[in-house]
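Input.
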Amino acid sequence: MSGERVLVIDDEPQLRRALRRMLEGYGYAVEEAVDGASGLRAFEAFTPDVVLLDLMLPDTSGVEVCTEIRGTSQTPIIVLSVHGDEATKVRALDEGADDYLTKPFGSRELLARIRVALRRRISDQPRPPQIEAGDLLIDLDRRSVKLAGQTLHLTPTEYSLLRYLATNQGRVLTHPMILRNVWGAEYVEDSHLLRTFVNQLRSKLRDDPASPRFIQTEPGVGYRFIQSEATP
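Output.
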């Protein structure tokens, strides 16, 4: 049984009941909130390990709630979004949300995202000197990358891009976030530049975008470095 605490901030009573029943069945402790104000109060009192945050709340936007939480805490936030609400979803991710699910979503997918968020929270500090993902080994101290034991020759920018993606395993990173962190603030609108370097990096990693092992595209949003998922 898990024992971790999950805060659900959503104004749909049927969804909250379903999430509570499912999550408690897997051993999570669950607290519910119906709007942004009660959600922030519950966050302070309940101190959750993960927050499930609806973006469409009756009193405020989920983006504002995300911003408030990020002002004091790095607790993982998984936003819940209606289909087609990409602009708000991207804003939430830019404000510090870790992941998103589009409604309706399956329970297995939600549980997987929660487990990934919890593992990342535990391993966030300190960063390991090496990152392993399947047969890929990234040595952060030596700035070297090996695939199946063979050294990859990456340009400095390709390495910086891979490092940023890999040190945020499992987290959805938006185009502006990646561009700002790898190239600088003046490049945040240059999505073509990012796509070009992602394609170059995928080619060197022998990573098929149709069936990725390392870099997954989040359409209209950004990219996610795939974190291996263990069965509970």
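The first strand starts at residue 5 and ends at 9.
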